[in-house]
């Protein structure tokens, strides 16, 4: 299934009204099934579904690593990701069903406690460092590498930069772009724990917890963070950089990983 769809509309531009064939992003209900039980249904863009499923299962703690997966298949024209895997036995959520909407949803990372100490994650210990020049260069390249956004203007984007390779992802939901980008790297045999994550949207608490669950040490965005997001990032030793506009940026938490270069 193609991620884009042609749709006939009436367009008003420069004082004229005319027929126009617009390009819309597809939004489908994607089911992730593990060991014959549905883990979750989420509204998503039908591209990189396997990467999304792997990133989601790891970030939610349902599996520990890709080594737990025995088999993965796309079914029903890519709308079902069917997985056979060894799972974390503490998860009784496999008997539940729920639909994750585009912006947030029913998951460990989406249901964030306002007390960071109650979040089931470990603190990040990475000594990864990057320069401000690197951030400026990567963010510029990142924003020029979003084909679905260029065609539709209707998706979020994420990039995981790791070992000189950029893993880019696009989806209607920002949290899914993070899982897709990380899932792509994991499928490529990479350990994402030394990666640098860039996202297009706001640095909300859900996005920050998603990065923490993937053990990402540095999270960067063109937009701002929330108060809760900054508190969670600070507690878990995540370096949070926002408002990257040209050579300007805000380093909200753990600036020791950022090397200033004039």
UniProtKB/TrEMBL annotation:
Protein's GO biological process? Mo-molybdopterin cofactor biosynthetic process
Please tell me where this protein is predominantly located: cytoplasm
Specify the domain of life of the species encoding this protein: Bacteria
The entry's keywords: Cytoplasm, Molybdenum cofactor biosynthesis
Q: Which GO terms describe its cellular component?
A: cytoplasm
Gene Ontology molecular function terms on file? sulfur carrier activity; sulfurtransferase activity
InterPro entries according to UniProt = Cytidine_deaminase-like, FdhD
Q: Where in the cell is it found?
A: Cytoplasm
A Pfam match: FdhD-NarQ
Give a yes or no for keyword Acetylation in this entry. no
Residues at the active site = 104 (cysteine persulfide intermediate)
Known NCBIfam families for this protein? fdhD_narQ, PRK00724.1-2
- Function in brief: Required for formate dehydrogenase (FDH) activity. Acts as a sulfur carrier protein that transfers sulfur from IscS to the molybdenum cofactor prior to its insertion into FDH.
Similarity comment: family membership: Belongs to the FdhD family.
Q: Identify this protein by name.
A: Sulfur carrier protein FdhD
- Species this protein is from: Caminibacter mediatlanticus TB-2
């Amino acid at each position: 299934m193609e991620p884009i769809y042609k749709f006939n509309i009436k367009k008003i531009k420069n004082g004229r009204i005319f027929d126009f064939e617009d390009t819309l992003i597809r939004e489908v209900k994607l089911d992730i099934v593990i060991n014959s039980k549905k883990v979750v249904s989420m509204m998503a863009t039908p591209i990189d579904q396997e990467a999304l499923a792997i990133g989601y299962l790891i970030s939610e703690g349902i599996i520990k690593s890709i080594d737990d997966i025995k088999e993965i298949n796309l079914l029903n024209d890519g709308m079902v990701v069917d997985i056979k895997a060894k799972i974390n036995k503490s998860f009784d959520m496999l008997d539940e069903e729920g639909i994750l909407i585009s912006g947030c949803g029913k998951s460990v990372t989406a249901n964030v406690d306002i007390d960071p100490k109650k979040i089931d994650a470990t603190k990040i210990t990475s000594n990864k460092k990057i320069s401000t020049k690197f951030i400026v260069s990567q963010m510029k390249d990142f924003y020029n590498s979003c084909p679905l956004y260029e065609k539709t203007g209707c998706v979020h984007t994420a990039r995981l930069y790791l070992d000189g390779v950029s893993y880019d992802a696009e989806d209607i939901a920002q949290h899914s772009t993070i899982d897709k980008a990380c899932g792509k790297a994991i499928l490529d045999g990479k350990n994402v724990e030394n990666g640098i994550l860039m996202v297009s949207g706001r640095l909300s608490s859900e996005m920050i917890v998603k990065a923490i669950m993937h053990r990402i040490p540095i999270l960067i965005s063109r937009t701002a963070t929330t108060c809760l997001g900054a508190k969670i990032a600070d507690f878990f030793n995540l370096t949070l950089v926002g408002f990257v506009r040209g050579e300007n940026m805000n380093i909200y938490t753990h600036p020791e990983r950022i090397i200033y270069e004039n």
